[in-house]
Amino acid sequence: MSTVLREHAEQLFAEELDALKKVDSRYRPPNWVLSPWAVTTYLLGGKLENGFVVSSKYIGNRRLIEIAVATLTTDRALLLYGVPGTAKSWVSEHLTAAVSGNSTLLIQGTAGTSEEAIRYGWNYARLLSKGPSMEAVVPSPLMRGMELGKIVRVEELTRIPADVQDTLITVLSEKLLPIPELSEEIQAQKGFNIIATANNRDKGVNELSSALKRRFNTVVLPLPVNLDEEVQIVDKRVKELGRSLELPAEPPALAEIRRVVTIFRELRNGVTENGKTKLKSPTGTLSTAEAISVVGSGMSLAAHFGDGTLNSADLASSLIGAVIKDPVQDNIVWREYLETVVKERSGWKDLYRSCRELS
Questions:
Q1: pLDDT of residue 203
Q2: Contacts of 263 (CB under 8 A, 6+ apart)
Q3: Which end of the chain is more exposed for a tag (fewer CB within 10 A), N or C?
Q4: How far apart are CA 142 and CA 335, in angstroms?
Q5: CA 193 from chain center: how many Å?
Q6: Where are any strands of DSSP class E within the chain?
Q7: Which residues contact 259 (CB under 8 A, 6 or more apart)?
Q8: Among candidate residues 220, 255, 281, the one where a domain is terminated
Q9: Is residue 318, in this structure, part of any structural domain at all?
Q10: Which pTM was predicted?
């Protein structure tokens, strides 16, 4: 078993990718490891002709994944857009692993991301000793992706300052990266493209210029449509998390996952699932990713400080921490929800008592 804390998608699902390669007789675009059909099957799951079962990496609208894959076969870049926690980064990583067989060409967008981090840097020791040359250039993931004909991931594009974002315009338009200091340029090889992710909910978001927007095909990844779909997503990811971290705890019961997801959906939507009671919403997003984190933390508590079975007491602390981001405003919202909904709901008395003790 691997000792790596988090394996790359192409390592974790190597068996599935190999199985798809063996049966994949469809057309593959230049430098693609799999055909568009096989990439889509890898993301959405399915049973192959030889009986091998591919697990689903994304549970949601099939057409969205098909549009995303089709975009990567064109000369337009792909922008995965949506509120935090809608699996944008997850989909981006798995798309890249299936298309290029390498998901590590990554630029992480932050407020401090510089133009050099996107284009290239310099080895100053070599620059001073031998002068400007290609040997003195330190290639960025973008430059390497262009040279190799691979997909490059840009995470949190809207976190990058606007003037640095626009560095991508020439690359996306002309498919080349100028190196003016050397009067040279890097031309993109076939297979190169960019998958960027962005959201409009975090603080410090920088809007994309219209010139940059035009060079992306945008696919909006929505929140799960209904309760059952979100429960299925959380259940699947939590089980994978438990195996990855080797937690000595039983997989959580669906009933506990359903309670967490119900709370998140009701507070997120500002109304109970039956539509009878209107609620105030907290300042946080309460995304599916956060629900996974809450259940995962509960499993850890159950494994190391409980009897190995997830219960309401294990969930309560992480649940409260996920809901209450603003200690004043969110605390009022949570207490009101606790007293008007959780307390009165049949079969939820244990969760109510556990949350009350910590609140």
A1: 61
A2: 319, 323, 337, 342
A3: N
A4: 48
A5: 18
A6: 46-47, 53-54, 77-81, 106-108, 120-122, 137-139, 151-155, 176-179, 184-187, 193-198, 216-220
A7: 315, 348, 351
A8: 220
A9: yes
A10: 0.91
Considering the domain architecture, whether residues 75 and 107 belong to the same structural domain is answered as yes
Q: Are residues 156 and 200 in the same domain?
A: yes
Query: Could you give the CA distance from residue 115 to residue 125 in angstroms, rounded to a whole number?
Result: 20
3-state DSSP helix/strand/coil percent for the chain, to nearest 5?
50, 10, 40
In sign, the C-alpha dihedral spanning 54, 55, 58, 63 is positive
Query: Range of 323's domain?
Result: 227-358
Residue position matching structure tokens 């910590």: 358
Q: What is the token pair recorded at 198?
A: 């962005």
Distance, in Å, from the CA atom of 13 to the CA atom of 7, rounded to the nearest integer, reads: 9
Structural domain count, the chain: 2
154 with 14, same domain?
Answer: yes
DSSP structure class, residue 251? P
What's the rounded Cα separation, in Å, for the pair 12 and 65?
Answer: 21
Q: Considering the domain boundaries, does residue 1 fall inside one?
A: no
Q: Is the pLDDT of residue 1 over 70?
A: no
Query: From the CA atom positions of the chain, what is the Rg in Å?
Result: 23
Give the pair of three-digit tokens for residue 111. 């407020």
Cα 318 from Cα 277, distance rounded (Å): 25
Report the share of the chain in percent with pLDDT over 90: 82
